[in-house]
Amino acid sequence: MYPNSGFVTEAPQSFERQIVLCTASENDKAYYKQEIGVLNEYPVVLYGFNTCLNSDWFDEDDHGLGHKLFLPMLGYHALVDISGTINIAMMHHPLDRIVHSESISTFMDKHYPIQIFGHLHKPVCWEDKCLHIQSGALQPQTSSEGGDEYFSVYNILELNVTSDENGKDFLQANLSVQRYRPESEGFETLDSEGHSFKTQLHRTPSRWSNDNKQKSLTERLPPDVSKRQIRLRFLNFHDQKSVIKRMNIYTYNDNISLHENCFHFLETVDNQHKYATLWSLVK
Predict the structure, then answer these.
(1) How far apart (Å, rounded) are the C-alpha atoms in residues 155 and 188?
(2) pLDDT at residue 225 greater than cutoff 90
(3) Quick one: what percent of the chain has pLDDT higher than 90?
(4) DSSP state for residue 261 in the 8-state scheme
(5) Are residues 56 and 163 both part of a single domain?
């Protein structure tokens, strides 16, 4: 679905995930969403928009020849929470190759502070209100054509959340582009395309207000047990469904997978500060 968009995200809180490259098939979807980690209580959510569903050999090229593509509104105009989250958008074609790109860009810039594109094999990064990353090519160059511009790279995007003296939170993103050198069979940092970006995050008032006070009143965890340990113990528990039903704070949904139920259940545990109760059932 994203043949030229291979990224690894990495952050100080040690979450990382490699986006697996896949080939086109009849099962390709127009829309993709996955939470890939949490930074300072901000979920990091990756959204994928498939611009390849109606592409062909005559798509618009670098010289303006060919036709633009369609990205249906249902394929990108998702319900996106911009408060209390960090959203990343990823798609194959740059938006200037899409019909009605200006209106789509306006929506994207409002909801996704980081936007990743493929298709063009030259790595480029720029920022205005958002950080835009054109990923470059992962595969080695097979011919000399465009060799000066189109070379093999991979991108390292480091994310961090900081706070200022006024209590405002900011997303700090640092992009490092690594260029492959066939003569040395190794990579070097391409400083010309490295980039730093900073933008303010928006807290969810109901989520952060009096948060520490509520936790102190409702949580009594052993000093040597962390919330992460409790979540892992639950996810490795032999009968997760029975635990969910015994807790009686989340209604099990038989129309979705066990994995999805566990995810929503743990969200509820966190929101209601029920880790101590969960620990008593899985320890």
Answers:
(1) 11
(2) no
(3) 9
(4) H
(5) yes
Domain-located, residue 2: no
What 8-state DSSP symbol labels residue 221?
A: -
**Which pLDDT tens digit goes with each residue over 132-166?**
887 776 665 555 555 555 677 788 889 999 888 88
Cα angle value 205/210/212 (rounded, 5°): 120
Residue whose pair of structure tokens reads 């043949």 in the numeric block: 3
> Which of these, 112, 182, 193, 198, lies nearest to 142 by C-alpha position?
182
Of 204, 235, 266, the last residue of a domain is 204
Q: What b/e string do you get for 34-69 counting C-beta neighbours within 10 Å, with b at 16 or more?
A: eebbbbeebebbbbbbbbbeebeeebeeeeeeeeeb
Is residue 170 in some structural domain? yes
Residues 168, 55 within the same domain: yes
Main-chain dihedrals φ then ψ at residue 110, nearest 5 degrees: -75, -30
- Structural domain that includes position 23: 7-204
